[in-house]
């Protein structure tokens, strides 16, 4: 983790909704719980002491169920919502101290956003929508149309320039939304449940599109979702929120293998582990006694390894990348990994 | 002896009452009672107990004013500030008189064979529908055929000027209201009052304020009455703009100005246009009533029909107003539909 620069950092962030957040904040800091606070003072605890670092060029996924505060959290990053207390650092600068003009510059040039309900301008064409961030910045008509057309093409929407958003399907509308965010040429992209309103097949397409774009553009993406499969597919860093607080964060494979909380355990119980877990997460450095049946890549998922073994539970594989042996993987390790783990507290025995 | 004598006696206010006594003019009721000669005061039963109104209390205590003093006070008060008010309001509203006069001139003095094509051209420009252009031509031709062309043009001229000024003033007020809840709370009761006050009531103070020969007298009455819908619907339209779209505009760093002209007004346009349609219809309604204070046009003929019991004149003019109203409504609705179609939101 040492070679990665932190792009966005959230420090001790609190958000309380109600008439007198300052007084409620003192109560929360002294240990009042969310339901208790609501009961006694009629204040809603939105976010409770959030600390997250988001690395440059990575996809940070913030996952939680409805009401967990994930949409509130992402809106703090560009200050669509003001926090009650805490710091938001972008490139090591505290954006909460910024005045309107500086903040507007951040929103125009450093951060772009993709929305769950697309939020395109219904009275503008697809091209004008994609060019909207540039128009806002005052870029000349010709230049912004060219830039917008380039990104529309990149997301697979060429030739639809003069359509209006309502003439497109949901998936296509969200492609316009992504093209709009990309056209602003910002380093940071905020995606608020960007694919949640789409049907499953289109959603998979869009996820693939995002990963493809990311492998090329290396933006810092903060992605919000309530769908664990989506989170595991996209995340470099996964943050799980519950009732406005971070329950666990880290590398998604690590969370899957070592849940620290019964809540997360329950959450990951229904996951197809064979398809999500990768060889690199469970391989061992120790050279096994038996015969090596073949070579696998560290990025392969367990399902493909099981398929390779043809169901034989005694085989062992060597994990190889670029001709270098990284470790070994035996079928028993795979079998063990497929059984959902108890949270670390419970499995100690 | 009056009913509430005892009340003032027990309160010990008798001296104050008698001290302030001045014999005001007698009311008709007093006169009638005196003429009948009966003094029934002493034997009022509980059934006949009068409400302690100003008049009833005045009977018992002369220092309390009568109800008619209230209306009289209002009148003298208004007359008192009238001159000061005129100094401010007169020059302020003078352009309205000019606008109305020149528009009336323009529309009645231009030969019909220029005016009618121009009106049809305007209809085409806003509605883009041959059907509606044809309908408008038919309406004007019909009115002209029964020699109501000039009065119809006068009515239209007044509506054009007044509706235009309503939009000019009303849309900015509506925008301001949509941006401040406080302003909305202040303006809404005023709009409610303008809408519920019987139209004749505006006319009374206006007659005192301006001379009846000035066009601005009816101009102001029409504008006050017709401005309400465009203000209301502009406010509503902007408040109803999808908050998700507004959030997107914020997230991409739009300034308030960019947001207003690039997002809010365009998206509120269907509602604003519905307000303009209502404003035009209401100015037509008011222009008829305003004929009582010398507004020219079809209303004058209706008024003549009522005053002189000329049934035919009144009916023809009345029907003329109806077809004019239908034509105006169709044209504005068509332009509204055109805006709606360009941004239908499924």
TrEMBL record, chain A:
Cellular component terms (Gene Ontology): plasma membrane
GO biological process: amino acid transport; glycine betaine transport; response to osmotic stress
PANTHER family per UniProt: GLYCINE BETAINE/PROLINE BETAINE TRANSPORT SYSTEM ATP-BINDING PROTEIN PROV, GLYCINE BETAINE_PROLINE BETAINE TRANSPORT SYSTEM ATP-BINDING PROTEIN PROV
EC number per UniProt: 7.6.2.9
Lineage of the species this protein comes from: Bacteria, Pseudomonadati, Pseudomonadota, Alphaproteobacteria, Rhodobacterales
Name recorded for this polypeptide: Quaternary amine transport ATP-binding protein
Localisation per UniProt entry: Cell inner membrane
Catalytic activity: a quaternary ammonium(out) + ATP + H2O = a quaternary ammonium(in) + ADP + phosphate + H(+)
Recorded topology in the membrane: Peripheral membrane protein
Keyword Metal-binding included in the entry's annotation: no
Protein's organism: Alloyangia pacifica
Automatic annotation (TrEMBL), chain B:
GO terms (BP aspect): choline transport; glycine betaine transport
Pfam families for the chain: BPD_transp_1
Single GO cellular component term: ATP-binding cassette (ABC) transporter complex
PROSITE patterns attached to this UniProt entry: ABC_TM1
Keywords: Cell membrane, Membrane, Transmembrane, Transmembrane helix, Transport
Keyword Phosphoprotein: no
Subcellular localization: Cell membrane
Single GO MF descriptor: amine transmembrane transporter activity
Membrane topology: Multi-pass membrane protein
Keyword Thylakoid recorded: no
Membrane spanning stretches: 110-127, 132-149, 155-178, 190-211, 217-234, 280-303, 309-328
Residues annotated as domain ABC transmembrane type-1: 152-332
PANTHER family: GLYCINE BETAINE/PROLINE BETAINE TRANSPORT SYSTEM PERMEASE PROTEIN PROW, GLYCINE BETAINE_PROLINE BETAINE TRANSPORT SYSTEM PERMEASE PROTEIN PROW
Family statement: Belongs to the binding-protein-dependent transport system permease family.
Name listed for the protein in its UniProt record: Glycine betaine/proline transport system permease protein
